[in-house]
Specification:
The protein contains 12 helices and 12 strands. By secondary structure, it is α/β, with parallel strands linked by helices.
Amino acid sequence: MKKKVLLLMTSHYSIYKEILENLERMGYEVDYRDIKEFKYKSFTQRAYNFFRKTFLRDKKYKDYLRKKTIEQDLIETFGKDYFDYTLIIRPDIYNPETVHFLKKISKKVVAYQWDGFSRFYNPPDLIEAFDTFAVFDKKDYYENRDKHKNLILAHNFYFDIIDCPNKKTIDVIYIGAKERDRVEVLNHLANIFDNQGIKSELYLFTADKVKCHPTIKVSEKILPYRKVLEKSSSSKCVIDLKHHLHDGLSLRFFESLYFNQKIITDNQSVKHMDFYHPNNILIVSDWYSLSYIELEKFLNKPFVDISEDIKNKYSFESWFNRLIQ
């Protein structure tokens, strides 16, 4: 009989589809519940929140309603089910009561904090409610491990459900959402690529009006994650722009590891990883000081193969097994 997994996460970027597919390939039976954007049930509920926020200075009541709605939905949907494991990604959108309910219908409830604590706050009682609470930022782990014995460090991962292309047709690629300073950095890089004839594809997702180099493809519509992988895997090198609120390694590092790609990044923490090699990973301290000569030298260095033993450590299967052990 197959073991059962309950997957709880938003459908943002549609990455849940790859997680589902990987879990099913591993032999699990999976139920998935999309955590949708909160909507008030009535005008009265909206008006009451306005009253609390305006006159009682209570800015947390809407968050309370949001989390309570999620709790009630899960109780109504899965109250009669039982799972071997429940995996929650982005646990900050739940309350401890929801986790306690899930522990009644699951042998083990595990959380993965996709972003750093400085970006999405997790109260101590919420962290403690889980059997295992995994973080991907070393700073978050070392600062909190003594306070929370259920805390573990688990880096991001790659999905091995996409075949690696036999031929890479692009020199450099970037696919990502707009964040602080990213437009300026991408414009700088696009100028270098365009002036020096480096074949690049740069995709920026934003609803804002931004002034970009003509080679940068700007869109309000975010590509599905499978499309991102298909496009990204066709490039020899990937650009990674670190989020200013955490030092955790993005999925790009592990996708590049799987697809045998080089990566250019401003995330200094990658130099401490066992798959780091200067031929494959260029760490930039200042994007605006990156010259064509330095870029060309890096791109022309021979790619160094990383051992399969090291690569296998960062597969989705290894990641999930670490969370449920």
